[in-house]
Amino acid sequence: MRRNRAILIALFSAALALSACSSDDETTSAPATTTADDAGTAGAADITIETFQFAIPANVSAGAVVIENLDNTAHTFSHVATSGEPAFDATLDGPNTRATIDVEPGTYDVRCNIHTSMTGTLVVT
Asked: Do 114 and 71 contact (CB within 8 A), yes or no?
């Protein structure tokens, strides 16, 4: 778990450093921020992963969306982008791990990049 946090911090720091080097007249977009933590944090998850299936509600509100992995194996919750960068790509090492993604309104096809038969649709309002 600590190794994953260290990797996330390193990736975030690298992204921050790269963005500081860009000029003011450039417009860039980056995938939504993802953070992983222990499932012991307060509040219910918006989306759960259990028995190799996503439990996604009919729609979720824009902003922070919490995903919880209840399986005994790692999964990802990844946007399948038809063009450009994916809006989010969260890795949940499981079991009982969470990730938070920041999402804009829209409809997103999602899958687990480790177990590609795990698919779904996320509707954000």
From this structure: no
Instruction: Give the pair of three-digit tokens for residue 109.
Output: 């096809």
83-118 confidence digits (pLDDT tens): 889 999 999 997 899 999 999 999 999 999 999 999
**How far from 119 is each of 79, 96, 114, 124, CA to CA, in Å?**
10, 20, 11, 16
Amino acid at 28: T
Domains in the chain, ordered, with CATH? 30-124 (2.60.40.420)
**Cα distance between residue 113 and residue 4, in whole Å:** 17
DSSP labels, 59-98: -B-SEEEEEEE-SSS-EEEEE--SSSS-S-EEEE-SSSEE
Burial class (CB in 10 A: 0-12, 13-18, 19+), 56: buried
